[in-house]
Structure formats: structure tokens, C-alpha cells
């Protein structure tokens, strides 16, 4: 998938545990884990907004776009 979730990086920068973020945002730890792994097909803007508010960051700090051609070249 060309969209990569970098939530784990932001959590490390903020020295926050996933459990604490999930509680502050109001989602389950399981759903947050799926999001961190990039295994979700969608994300509500309201959830993204709450995550950004708690982590004091921008959506672009949590999501990155890697075009398929760039990823394939990196894999070689």
C-alpha cells in the first residue's frame, strides 16, 4: 500500500504508550494497533483529529505516501 502509517514514530517522539493514546482518543487498543500496522482500510477524520490533538502534530506527521515505483526501487 502506498500510504504508510508512521504513528509509532510519533508515539516514540512524544514518549507515549499506545495504551495511553488509545484511552485519550477513545478507541480500543486493538484498533490503534491495526492502525499502527497499516492494516485499516479507512480512518475517520474525527479520529485522526483526536490523535493529532493528543499528539500535538499534523496529519502529515502520521501518514506518508510512497509511490509504488519508489517502493519497488527501494526493495531492489
Automatic annotation (TrEMBL):
Protein species of origin: Tistlia consotensis USBA 355
Matches recorded under SMART domains: HTH_XRE (SM00530)
InterPro entries: Cro/C1-type_HTH, Lambda_DNA-bd_dom_sf
Pfam families reported for this sequence: HTH_26
GO molecular function, one term: DNA binding
Protein name: Transcriptional regulator, XRE family
Domain HTH cro/C1-type stretches: 13-62
Transmembrane domains' residue ranges: none
Amino acid at each position: 500500500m502506498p500510504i504508510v502509517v508512521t504513528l509509532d514514530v510519533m508515539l516514540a517522539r512524544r514518549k507515549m504508550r499506545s495504551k495511553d493514546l488509545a484511552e485519550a482518543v477513545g478507541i480500543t487498543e486493538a484498533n490503534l494497533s491495526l492502525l499502527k500496522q497499516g492494516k485499516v482500510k479507512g480512518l475517520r477524520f474525527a479520529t485522526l483529529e483526536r490523535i493529532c490533538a493528543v499528539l500535538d502534530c499534523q496529519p502529515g506527521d502520521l501518514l506518508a505516501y510512497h509511490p509504488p515505483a519508489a517502493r519497488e526501487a527501494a526493495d531492489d
